[in-house]
Write a structure and sequence with these properties.
482 residues; alpha/beta; Udp-n-acetylmuramoylalanyl-d-glutamate--2,6- Diaminopimelate Ligase, Chain: A, domain 1; UDP-N-acetylmuramoyl-L-alanine:D-glutamate ligase; Protein-Tyrosine Phosphatase, Chain A; 3 domains; nine-stranded mixed sheet; seven-stranded mixed sheet; 15 helices; 23 strands; 30% helix; globular; Mur_ligase_C; ligase; cell cycle; cell shape; UDP-N-acetylmuramoyl-tripeptide--D-alanyl-D-alanine ligase
Length: 482
Amino acid sequence: MSALWTAAEAAAATGGRVTCDWQADGVSIDTRALAPGDLFVALTDRRDGHDFVAEALGKGAAAALVSHVPGGVAPDAPLLIVADVLDALQALGRAGRERSRAKVVAVTGSAGKTSTKEMLRHVLAGQGRVHAAEASFNNHWGVPLTLARLPRDAAFAVVEIGMNHPGEIAPLARLVRPDVALITTIAPAHLAAFDDLAGIAREKGAIFTGLVPGGTAIYPGDLDVSPILAEAARAEAGDILTFGHAKECTFRLKGVEFHENSMVVQARGPVRELLFKIQSAGRHFAMNALGVLAVAESLGMDGAVAACDLAAWVPPAGRGERLRIALDMVEDQLAVEVIDDAFNANPASIACALEVLAAARPQDGVGRIARGRRIAILGDMLELGPQEQALHAGLADLPAMTKVDLVHCVGPRMRALYFALPLKKRGQWFDEAEPLARKIHHMIDAGDVVLVKGSKGSRVSMVVDALRKLGQAVPAPQEEPE
């Protein structure tokens, strides 16, 4: 197989100068994850990547992309020297996209981007080689990195695009040049940088500005802000597909039947009824799946086959993954189930996660406490702006909260929820995650189902790590796909 980048190709793409001939099989920005043969990109963030070039070369990097020869590195070392490393990475990503024959799908939204990306990876894999970032690489360096890593022979590429502030999505979308652009949903998130949901919708709708001529725009058709998305799509797209509950949506969600670890989804596509299973009991996953089926439709795939493929998909770690943690090596029934949704949070995604918890079935009579409990551990939702106190307190009124037995809260913002909860549901409040993680073994019991959810900055993933250490963690049993 030919190299991902030769020295000549990379120099031509970036306008840089190479010190010798080399070829790279991958692209890396982190020496901890670098594989021999990678091109190491010396980005500057919290640390200057040039400080790690010698280490990268010592670990077998094919070359390093730098703006100067770093200290401790020989002048004749394999380098690609450019004026600005980030600009060069973006140029490399642009060249990777331009030479590719892959059908490119771009995904954005206030929630569900990464899960939808992983659904697409799974469904498209049955049709050809799929390229998608392993992590949530969706910003000004993650998007070009994903494109720079795009294999020459990929049939499909799925690129996640995120934002924190106005004006971020359009330049990334134009870099990606997607054949299909999908918006998962619009919800209260990043309100610190936007006046209202309409502002978020306009920013998310900017993803359509990057569409190739004749490209397809896909978005939720039944939100209050859907007219804003529709206007953006009409201005840029050759074809438009929508999904949601409304009858006029191209893909309509008609019903969801919840089971303990799965759900059966009934939907209507453009030409046929659809019935399929998803191995997670989250209504948001059902809606994301309709977006995925719309992508499959736009790419000419058989919708029934794509729906069947969704039955084998499971959420990734931190995005709703379900774990069974055996607390006793001998007595197998002494276990706790954990729903790991600790990567991100906003009011809409917490509502969905609580629905999943409400559908779960604790086990009675196996622990110290006679009755198994549904326990939510909720960390701060960040970047919500002036409404943050009201939005946190408002979680107490969510319908799914009626089936939650106990809520532990983490962070100064979640204090508003703590005091809004009825006394019988109040667990404990912690200013930060670390002390809760230290005490978690006293706060759960065999038979419990525990949801951990919060923005990444709340660090509630520490609680998941602590739960994993209580025993042997394995994926929760899944129902067999039909």
